[in-house]
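Cross-check.
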Amino acid sequence: MAFEDLLEDPVIQKYLHELVGPKGMPVAAAPPDGEVTDEELAEELDLELNDVRRALFILYENDLASYRRLRDEDSGWLTYLWTFEYDNIPENLEEEMYRLHDALEDRQEYERNHEFYLCEICSIRFEFGEAMDFGFECPECGSPLESMDNDRLVNAMDDRLAALEDELNIDADA
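Predicted model, tokenized:
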């Protein structure tokens, strides 16, 4: 898939934005063909060199860019030539979805196996043990803590897990 096709996908745009942030997004969204130096990118995109380098390093850490070093014979300076490798994006997104699935399963188990109490004034949630330690009174405002029903949250997690399992072709009974 060509860079242009990938970059038109809003999911991929969001993924890149989450990785490099707003200052790095111009770097991620405008990958040149072939090799380019960080200085050339900074000049071409009218960005601070440090912002470009930060974005390139983040892309490198996520297997979306690579570099090769050249040493100038006269000065001894190293020049880094960067290449963008966005073919890895779909695989990276799938790994992220698996991590999300595992984290959501862990959180759902936590929600199911604990009893919670809520201060309706401060909107602070406490586990049963914490609530008991505070005498079922909010330590911030002194209001009584009310038993909290988290069934809607657990059900929403069920729905999200089912959607992820469908997307990832995970057999929920396995």
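Strands lie at 65-71, 78-84, 116-119, 124-127, 146-148. The first strand starts at residue 65 and ends at 71. Passed to J.P. for a second look.
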